[in-house]
Amino acid sequence: MLMSKLEVLVDFGPKPDEVILNKTLAELKSQDGVKDAVYKEGAILVETALPSTQILEMGCKSIGEHYNPCGAPHGAPEDPMDRRHAGDLGNIVADETGRATFRIVDNVLKVWDIIGRSVAVTERKDDLGRGSSPSSKIDGDSGTPIACGIIARSAGVFQNPKRICACDGVVVWDEKDRPLAGKGRREEKPKRRCCENHNNSNVVNPCCKV
């Protein structure tokens, strides 16, 4: 088994509640494979055992191809929508320790597009669809994913009553008005016009443009 340390940023406020913090650390330490969990400078450092490299590699392969709802070729983040995958986010740069810190603002991919989807880091640099390799227009000849994870909705510590994240793409701010599972979860509710029934009234809805 390989050992790995994962740094998790948690918003406990300016001064963390000791009871909540201790309960969080105890819950993390009770999970299978977790060796230790400590709180330091606004983050929880979790030391955990990872399965073999081969198992991890197969896990990342299972996430599928690039997110591409428009059927476009692979490209660069700055390319127009019809010349890039929606999931083409470009390259990141890591320091000598292997740590990469970055912030991405994208004009094609939106937050609600990626809830329940995966993000991966590949073994090679993405050629952004400009290379001569046959896979350049497919994945930028970037090779096998070596790390991946699922983008899921988040809540404050012990504030989310759901034990299992649905991860089904339902917009976070609409989720509270929908069932947790089953019929009706993904169905769009009819939208009421803001100014409906106000045409013959002296009362104007505050959200109407007049």
Automatic annotation (TrEMBL):
EC number annotated for this UniProt entry: 1.15.1.1
Catalytic activity of the protein: 2 superoxide + 2 H(+) = H2O2 + O2
Molecular function as annotated in GO: copper ion binding; superoxide dismutase activity
Keywords: Antioxidant, Metal-binding, Oxidoreductase, Zinc
InterPro entries per UniProt: SOD-like_Cu/Zn_dom_sf (IPR036423), SOD_Cu/Zn_/chaperone (IPR024134), SOD_Cu_Zn_dom (IPR001424)
Superkingdom per UniProt: Eukaryota
Presence of keyword Repeat: no
One Pfam family in the UniProt entry: Sod_Cu
Superoxide dismutase copper/zinc binding domain: residues covered: 57-151
UniProt xrefs under PANTHER family: SUPEROXIDE DISMUTASE CU-ZN -RELATED
Name of protein: superoxide dismutase
